[in-house]
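Two proteins follow. First one:
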Amino acid sequence: MKSFVLAPFDIALGLELTGDIARTENRLRLHYDLFDEFSEVVIPAAHSPQRRNNLWQTTCFEFFLGVQNSPQYWEFNLSPSGDWNVYRFESYRTGMQEELTLTQLPFEFDAIEKSCTIDFDLSPIIQADQLLNVSITAVIQTLDEQITYWAIQHCGAEADFHLRESFVLDI
């Protein structure tokens, strides 16, 4: 298990994002904890989960998985509402398609604790013997409609979660 701390691209006082990630055989477990000192974060209302686009326009937990030594990668979006999506890319921001081999993502968001946990089998998209490069990120919207971008490491002049240099965890 590896622990992480996400940093905002811009200053976001009163917020902290931490968590841990583990890969056992070919199962991935990722847990986020959002500390919101002043209850300033917009949390989309929970409803029956659906695959949806544009989840990053409000509070959304994200992570990116890339197979080591390959330009291909996947972007996972998890909304506190229960909505989700997974996109596959051929290379940096190229060839974006919904990853249709995944028909659901088993994750839970605890609105009281403001935590998000996903635990799922990677086998439909990734072989167990493939080393993964991971970037863990989040988009956080505050009540004053400010959008902040969080990552383990920001590598560009602007917030850009797709930069492969930011895939800094190996699992």
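Second one, unrelated to the first:
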Amino acid sequence: MGDVVLSTPLPREIKKKYPDAFIAVLVRKYTKAVFENNPHIDLILCDDFTEETRKETFWKRVEELRKLQFTDGLMLLPTERLNWMMFWAGISNRVGVGHKLYQTLSFAKSVSRNKYIPLRHESDYCMDLARKIGINTYNIASELHLNNEEKQKLLELKDEFKKDKKYVVGIHTTFGGSSPNVSALTYRKVIEELKDDPDIKVIVTGNEVIKEIADIEGVTHLTDNLRDLFILIGTFDLLVSSSTGPAHVAAALRIPTLTLFCPLPACHPTLWSPIGNDANYLMPDEKYCGTVCPGDPHLCRFEGEGGINESKIIDAIRGIISTKELQTVL
């Protein structure tokens, strides 16, 4: 989901340059919600398949694309399937990433990430494909669009959460495993302290309610479909999470974030930070990765000396909230 959210600047910037362009996006169904209600999108297409339906759905998508007579195709995820799909659909100007053999054989254009040197934001790398068709912009802020009914539901939900509270703090405990995250026990300690603060309402989100925090009283655990998750995140004054999709959703809704990051180049905030919002982040001490960390971002829980513990997270949350309060007073 996060990668898809980071691609949302492209339709906006293309439409600014070419207001009469017909723009479609091709996504998996579970991320379709990211582009729903987007005023810059004319059509959302989905490509879902299993091993059994791979060939059948391929030619269906080719036929579908061919009928729409696209002139340009930007392949942010330049898989072989997508490459040949656009080729057989007759899309003359196709732009992908890298220099795979199938791209060369199909005469696709490409952009290079040059091994991420210099390190730039993922959205900026995505925008390189649009720059290949004349889009000269550095506006890479993500965006999501709620309809009027969703906006009203958001306001009602926020009123319900706040009541006699000043702040609604969301804590997203789960992650897809692509980046480091603190342990469930650490999240529990953070939640337990925050829930006793008379000014703070804690909302826990996640793909599932993890057992280590399921029994904490006074904390709301909510999980639902993506559009409902967007509404929920829109009620927060701050979202705390690892470097995962909901952090980018919050940024696209202009909700402040506190994100836990690894300093390794592939996981660094320069590449993956939420963008377009008040983005705050925590990283372990400078020498942590070379001395304490297991060396694999998928296994790292920021534990041990110089890592990220509950005290650091709580101090950061209170610091962000106090700044927000000061800004409100001023």
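SUMMARY FIELD: The first helix runs from residue 2 to 5. The domain at 149-329 is CATH 3.40.50.2000 (Rossmann fold).
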